[in-house]
Amino acid sequence: KSKIAELRKQRKISQQELATAVGVTRQTITSIEVEKYTASLVLAYKIARYFDMAIEEIFDFSDVEV
After folding, report:
1. Each residue of 11-31: b (16+ CB within 10 Å) or e?
2. CA dist., res. 4 & res. 8, Å (int)
3. Distance separating alpha carbons of residues 12 and 66, to the nearest angstrom
């Protein structure tokens, strides 16, 4: 799970704007938002940096086995 859609809407950023900023396609952002794709660590880091937040503030890792 992620808060990407929520963060985008709060900041009035389109999927395309975010995708361009982090170097992926709009479809990748869509897939992450609807939980059909899990972002790589590098992509998660880029998204977190874009929003000036920690990865854990954007992505929910509660269902990940340790």
Report:
1. eeeebeebbeebebeeebbee
2. 6
3. 35
The amino acid at residue 4 is I
pLDDT tens-digit profile of 23-64? Answer: 999 999 999 999 999 899 999 999 999 999 999 999 987 776
- The span from the CA of 51 to the CA of 21, in Å, is 11
Give how far Cα 18 sits from Cα of 28, 51, 62, 64, 66, Å: 10, 10, 25, 26, 30
Geometric angle at alpha carbon 63, from 41 and 17, rounded to 5°: 40
**Joined tokens for residue 20:** 């361009």
Place of tokens 């999927």: 15
Tokens of 41: 């660590």
pTM over 0.85, yes/no = yes
